[in-house]
Specification:
The chain is of the alpha+beta class. A 5-stranded antiparallel beta sheet has the order 1-2-3-4-5, sandwiched between helices. It has a 4-stranded antiparallel beta sheet with strand order 6-8-7-9, covered by helices on one side. The mean pLDDT is 94.
Length: 194
């Protein structure tokens, strides 16, 4: 798969490997880290291994994709991830171990991935965050994304009713607002002052 290795001042962004199972478990097994992620926290190394095989290894066999392990240069061990979709809303997603929160790591990694998807010709990217997680919205704004609208969704597999804010970054003037979330939701609105 076309997931080129990326480097920033502090970080290496690369594919997850089978050797990263324990690191993946530390990222996705933490209940607090997973509060605003759609899936449940991993319960074991075995679940992390299965997730690597089904989500990452399988995706890396495709022609194009952006599923990055975020690693500090000093040890090349994953402490988080950044992903970008290759169709639909080209959705940007990220997660980071909580002991690394507040250091600008996700913003730094997100900028590198955004630069790559722009070079590769994606027309825009979107990202969403739960209204109860404003720190994620702050990351989106630091990445140059603009708030477009809010919508309600029954979030799966957690089966939680949530209100999300949708942000978008267009790479050229030909893109309008990505409307799929708006169109699919019976409850949608634009918040003032976001």
């Amino acid at each position: 798969m076309n997931t080129p290795r990326l480097e920033t001042e502090r970080l290496i962004l690369r594919k997850f490997t089978a050797d990263d199972t324990e690191a993946l478990y530390r990222i996705l097994g933490d209940r607090e880290v997973n509060t605003f992620l759609p899936w449940f926290p991993l319960k074991s190394i075995e679940e992390a291994r299965a997730l690597f095989e089904t989500r990452y290894a399988a995706a890396y066999e495709k022609e194009r994709g952006y599923l990055y392990a975020v690693c500090l240069k000093e040890d090349d061990c994953p402490i988080g991830y950044v992903t970008a979709g290759t169709e639909g809303g080209y959705d940007l997603g990220y997660g980071l171990r909580k002991e690394f929160w507040g250091r600008g790591i996700v913003t730094e990694a997100g900028r590198a991935v955004i630069d790559q998807v722009r070079r590769d010709g994606l027309p825009f990217i979107t990202a969403t965050h739960d209204v109860n997680n404003p720190r994620s919205g702050a990351v989106m704004r630091r990445l140059g994304m603009t708030y477009r609208y809010s919508y309600e969704e029954q979030w799966q597999p957690k089966d939680i009713l949530a209100v999300f804010r949708m942000y978008q970054l267009n790479f050229d003037g030909s893109c309008g607002v990505f409307r799929q979330y708006w169109d699919n939701s019976a409850v949608r609105f634009v918040e003032e002052g976001v």
